[in-house]
Design brief:
- InterPro entries: AAA+_ATPase, ABC_transporter-like_ATP-bd, ABC_transporter-like_CS, P-loop_NTPase, PstB-like.
- The chain has a domain of 174 residues: P-loop containing nucleotide triphosphate hydrolases (Rossmann fold, 3-Layer(aba) Sandwich).
- 36% of the residues lie in helices and 27% in strands.
- The chain has 10 helices and 10 strands.
- It has a 6-stranded mixed β-sheet, sandwiched between helices.
- The two termini are 36 Å apart.
- The structure holds adenosine-5'-diphosphate (ADP) and magnesium ion.
- The site of magnesium ion has 4 residues, from helix 1.
Length: 251
């Protein structure tokens, strides 16, 4: 079932159009990879899904994004709620300069609901386990998250997102700043999370996209060129631009 649908979505930075008439549907409990050369609009598009572009001055958006059937740009949309339901993970791990424990509970403390210490302990453990970093950090939850390696920091950031129980996780090149071993661990972890979450992931890593994603969308110059099951995109692309990009013949 489609959980997110964008219809005729245009985005302008000032006068400059960065997205042209994007029509795409994302499906529940799948990983969708967004690929394409630098500057083609992948991050911009990802940010339209949880309205992170609202924070950038001079942005104009036309068209529609529906999330669970609701127009997210409609006046009745609660943007704080939207961002809770669509967690985001960035290229550079961005833990806050406090303890691992407080990083994971950060989003919970912004909510109205209050939790007991036992409940928080449990959420911290579950989230760090789901993010495959529990064994690394269980004996030092009160240490600064900044003392961890890059790969561990990124997994703690993913745990921080999981703690608020989002429906969707948006990932913008989540492993590209990491070494191959850390990157591989995160990739396996994301694959396992697919049971419970819908994920949309920008990646420059073609083997990674082909290993873990169900569908792949290829962007070029602000256009969505081709969108299909990942196997089709990599084995039998319909558009010459897609073929040139995935075979590295590009530009
Ligand atoms: N905050 C911004 N202000 C103005 N232009 C931007 C901004 N962010 C991105 N752009 C432009 O929009 C286009 C798409 O950028 P981006 O979405 O970052 O591409 P990608 O993630 O595919 O590398 C690029 O031409 C980029 O220069
Ligand atoms: Mg980008």
């Amino acid at each position: 079932m489609a959980i997110i649908t964008s219809k005729d979505l245009d985005l302008f930075y000032g006068e400059k159009q960065a997205l042209n008439q994007i029509n795409i549907e994302f499906y529940e409990k799948e990983i969708t990879a967004l690929i394409g050369p630098s500057g083609c609009g992948k991050s911009t598009f990802l940010r339209t899904l949880n309205r992170m572009n609202d924070l950038i001055p001079g942005v104009t958006i036309n068209g529609e994004v529906q999330f669970n059937g609701q127009d997210i740009y409609g006046s009745s949309m609660d943007v704080v709620m939207l961002r809770k339901q669509m967690g985001m993970v960035f290229q550079q791990p961005n833990p806050f300069p406090f303890s691992i424990y407080d990083n994971v509970t950060y989003g919970l403390r912004l909510q109205q609901q209050t939790y007991t210490k036992e409940e928080l302990d449990q959420i911290v453990e579950e989230s760090l386990k789901a993010a495959a970093v529990w064994d690394d950090v269980k004996d030092k939850l009160n240490k600064s998250a900044l003392s961890l390696s890059g790969g561990q920091q990124q997994r703690v950031c993913i745990a921080r997102v999981l703690a608020v129980k989002p429906d969707v996780i948006l990932l913008d090149e989540p492993t590209s700043a990491l070494d191959p071993v850390s990157s591989g661990k995160i990739e396996e972890m994301l694959y396992d999370l697919k049971e419970d979450y819908t994920m949309i992931m920008v990646t420059h890593n073609m083997p990674q996209a082909s290993r873990i994603s169900d569908r792949t969308a290829f962007f070029l110059n602000g256009d969505l060129i081709e969108y299909a099951p990942t196997k089709e995109i990599f084995l039998n692309p319909k558009k010459i631009e897609t073929e040139n990009y995935i075979t590295g013949k590009f530009g």
